[in-house]
Amino acid sequence: MASSSSSAAPAVLKLHQYGARWELPSFDPFCLSAQAYMRLAGVTFEEVPSNNPDVSPTSNLPLVQLGDDYVAGTNAIFTYVGNKTGKSLDSALNAEQKATAAAFIHLIETKLHPTLLYNWWAEKQNMGQTLVLPHFNSMVFPLGYVLPRLKQRNVQSYLYTLNLTQDEKVYNDAEECYAALADFLGDKHFFFGDSPSSLDAVAFGHLAIHLVAPQSHKLRSRLLQHKNLEAFCKRVMTLYLGQDFPAIPAPPPATEDKDQKQEMSQHKKTGMYLLTGAGLLILLHYLTKQHQAAHQ
């Protein structure tokens, strides 16, 4: 009788990401960028919509896992996936093109992304939408109420260090980024021609959310002035993510700001109650555990 031997199944590449929202695979632009990269490169992977950044060594998502390897952050993920699978989106780019891609990615992640943070976390009329993101909804009571307000405070402090405290500067920055991307894309299929690059993945990850997040109407109205960027997002979504691009929300009615301010006022009152008594004790316990885990 022939002997049989068993061998371990090959490790599956997993992408841990914040969950789906607005008919997009993730509500987070960096997670969406990572997924777009892997889809555009033709990499086989398993989606893990965890909404729990604690799975990451850096307490941030996105995160890719392969066996005992854990890699967090879009740039590190792009490099790791390319090395492990042999499918790098930038392998066909020359040195000048790689430098150009890196410059535009830096522009998107350091200048355009803060405008989204401002839009979601610094504009009071948008907080009603931001507070119901899946990441916060998945938290146990009362953390789902308390931690978003701590997040808001941290984001606003970060925006202050960038001198992003006024609408005019924020949305001028967004317009400059959109215009630069639209000009470079032109009428090309992708930013460097007929084949996608890491720049296409990152641009899609950020621009798609600007187009469909309900609270992003001030960004969306400016982005929609560049029809080639809108068409680019729809093309990537349809051809590589295998689904139609979500419906783009209509401009909000003039009365919406007043209603959202009233809703935000109620959120603030609720948050103040929860920051006292049992809510504060549970929060302190949670933060203590986080601190201990970080130093193990």
From TrEMBL:
This is Metaxin. The chain crosses the membrane at residues 270-288. It is found in: Mitochondrion outer membrane. Keywords: Membrane, Mitochondrion, Mitochondrion outer membrane, Protein transport, Transmembrane, Transmembrane helix, Transport. Residues 31-151 form the Mitochondrial outer membrane transport complex Sam37/metaxin N-terminal domain. Belongs to the metaxin family. Residues 174-236 form the Metaxin glutathione S-transferase domain. It comes from Acanthamoeba castellanii (Amoeba). GO terms for biological process: protein transport. Pfam families: GST_C_6 (PF17171), Tom37 (PF10568). InterPro entries: FAX/IsoI-like, Glutathione-S-Trfase_C_sf, Glutathione_S-Trfase, Metaxin_GST, Mito_Protein_Transport_Metaxin, Sam37/metaxin_N, Thioredoxin-like_sf. GO terms for cellular component: SAM complex. CDD domains: GST_N_Metaxin (cd03054).
